[in-house]
Amino acid sequence: MANLEAQLGVQLWDRSTKIPTLTEEGSVLLTAARRICSDVDAFKRTAEGLVGGLEPSISLAVDVILPTRALVDLCREFAVKFPTVQLRLYADTLSAVSSLVLDGVCQIGVVGPAAQTQGLERQHISTVRLIPVAAKHHPLAQIQGPVATQVLAEYVNIVLSERGGSRPTADQGLLSSNVWRVADLNTKHAFLRAGLGWGNMPEHLVLEDLASGRLVRIRPSAWGEDDWILSLSIVHRPDLAKGPATRWLLERMAELCLRDIGPPQPSSP
C-alpha cells in the first residue's frame, strides 16, 4: 500500500485506526480505477468481437407504423446479446425510411408499402391492418352502417405525410378534398381522438381506443367491407455485410412482428 501511495503521491489509507480505511482521496481513486477496469474489459470484448466478425455498430430505420412493443423488445434483447455493438435508431414515415437505407445512412430498414425500394433487397415479414376511425363525439361516429362518400367529403380527413411535404401515399383512397397532413403518427392519433377529423390508423395502435369507445370505427361505402392491409418489409442494400448482429437483428425483427401483428396477409392494391 505504501508503494502505491508513493507512486501516486496521494495518501490512500487512513492508518489512525486499528484497521486502515480508505481516505476520501482513496475512495475517489478506487472509483476511477474500477471505471478504468470496466473500460478495459469492454475494450477487450469489443476487440474480440471484431476479430470474430462482430459489427462495431448497426443503424436501423423503422416506419412509425411498426408496433412500439416489438421495437422496444428488439432493442432490449439486442443490448443484452450484443453489448459491444452500438445501435443507431431512426424513425420516420413512408419513403423517408427507405431513403435512409438507399443513401447509406442506415443499413437496415423496416418499411411499409409506400417506400421506394428499387435497388434494395426486400423481405416481406408481416402486414398492418388500417382501420378508419373517428372520435366518439364526431358526427361521422353517429352514423350506423356505411358512410356515403359525399358525407365523408364534408369532414376533415387527417392523413400521414412525409416531413418534406410529399403527398400522403400511405393513406390511399382519399375521399375528402379537405385534408390535413401531419408528419407523425402520434400527432395524427391525437387529432383523431380530439375529434378534429377522421382517418385511417394501424389497428394495433387503436385497439384500446376502440374497446373503450374513445374512437369509433366508421365504414366508408366506397371501400366496401374490406380493410386496407399494408405490407411490412425489411429492406437493405444488396451489398450489406451480414455479421452476427445483423443476422440476428433481421431474424428477430421478423419474429417480433409475427408475435405482435400476425403473419403476412395479402396486401390491399
UniProtKB/TrEMBL annotation:
Q: Does the keyword Transcription apply?
A: yes
Q: Which Pfam families does the entry link to?
A: LysR_substrate
Stretch forming the signal peptide:
none
Does the keyword section mention Ribonucleoprotein? no
Q: Which GO terms describe its molecular function?
A: DNA-binding transcription factor activity; transcription cis-regulatory region binding
Sorted alphabetically, the keyword list is: DNA-binding, Transcription, Transcription regulation
Query: Matching InterPro entries, A to Z?
Result: LysR_HTH_N, LysR_subst-bd, WH-like_DNA-bd_sf, WH_DNA-bd_sf
Q: Where is the HTH lysR-type domain?
A: 1-23
Which family would the database say this protein is a member of?
Answer: Belongs to the LysR transcriptional regulatory family.
> What name appears for this protein in its UniProt entry?
Transcriptional regulator, LysR family
Q: Which organism is it from?
A: Stigmatella aurantiaca (strain DW4/3-1)
